[in-house]
Amino acid sequence: MTEHTNKQFDADLESVRSQFLQMGGVVEAMIQESVDAIPTGDMELVEKVREREKQVNRFEVEIDERIGLILARHQPTAIDLRTLLAVSKMLTDMERCGDEAEKIANTVRRMYEADQRFMPVIEIRHMAASVGRMLHDVLDSFARLDPVLAAQVVRNDKEVDREWKGALRNLITYMMEDPRTISRAIDMVFIARALERIGDHAKNMAERVIYLVRGADVRHTGAKNAERQARGEVEAETAESNGEA
User: Fold this and answer.
1) Mean pLDDT, to the nearest integer, of 216-241?
2) Which run of H or of E encompasses 46?
3) Residue 214 and residue 229: Cα distance in Å, rounded?
4) Which of the listed CATH numbers 3.30.420.10, 1.20.58.220, 3.90.1010.10, 1.20.120.80 matches domain 1-231?
5) What does this gene product do (predicted)?
6) d(C-alpha 160, C-alpha 203), whole Å
7) Which helix (H) or strand (E) element contains residue 131?
8) CA–CA separation, 231 vs 145, rounded Å?
9) Residue 63 buriedness (CB in 10 A; 0-12 / 13-18 / 19+)
10) What residues contact 59, with CB distance under 8 A and at least 6 apart?
11) pLDDT (tens digit, 9 = 90+) per residue, 112-144?
């Protein structure tokens, strides 16, 4: 590529990275606002989430189109190609995080419009905080190309899964002990499940960051392997076994 083409490519690539981080910031706000609306029934927050979801969808389309143009114009190689492929995959997960946040907001609207009085007492904020931190750390690891932080997100998904199972057990107990809580408890199950899915999508994105930086596909291989790949330990072991280290 000529110097001019190189500069244009760098600008296009940076634009993709910047837009994706902006998209992530919007999704972070959606999660926070949807969870804040649960105890209060604040419909202004619910509407904010619904409006932000449209913004997230626009980001997805714009970034996807930009990636397609970069691939067609510049035919990137190596790390730049991995960046584009990683962001392309991460886009889907980020958009689905926004969808899950909107589901929470819609569930809150339904709960308060139905005026359900019998509210099962369940702590959802800690789970929401854990999921929000995972998403924030994914964006941070992507911005700084930090595979070790990304591997920590993969590890943290296990804790969110445990919290989801605990919440489900508690809600089932409430429904068995007091049938008046069944309707609201089912709504809370939907909310907890949406948070658990956001955690899954954050984990998927974290795995993509590891792939981007290390070139290693750590999907379905477990948190321990993700951590070893992120630290570069697997590459070192391979080099030693080949007499290269």
Assistant:
1) 76
2) helix 43-74
3) 7
4) 1.20.58.220
5) Plays a role in the regulation of phosphate uptake.
6) 11
7) helix 125-144
8) 12
9) buried
10) 19, 20, 22, 23, 26
11) 888 765 565 567 889 999 999 999 999 999 999
CB contact at 8 A, 194 and 101: yes
pLDDT averaged over every residue in the chain: 88
Using CA atoms in the order 31, 35, 41, 42, what is the torsion angle rounded to 10 degrees? Answer: -50
Helices 182-214, 223-231: axis angle to 10 degrees equals 30
Contact 82, 215 (CB under 8 A): yes
Element spanning 74, H or E: helix 43-74
Cα separation of 226 and 186, whole Å? 35
Tokens at 121, concatenated: 């007492």
Q: What letter would DSSP give residue 221?
A: S
CA distances to 41, 224, 227, 233, 244 from 239, in Å: 58, 20, 18, 10, 5
pTM as predicted: 0.89
Torsion angle of the four alpha carbons 137, 141, 147, 152, in this order, in degrees rounded to the nearest 10? 0
Which tokens in the block code for residue 63?
């970034």
Assess contact for 182 and 175: CB atoms under 8 A.
yes
Q: Which residues contact residue 234 at a Cβ distance below 8 angstroms, ignoring those fewer than 6 apart?
A: 216, 225, 228
Q: Residue 62 CB: number of other CB atoms within 10 A?
A: 14
What is the Cα 121 distance to its own chain's centre? 27
Q: Are 199 and 181 within 8 A, CB to CB?
A: no
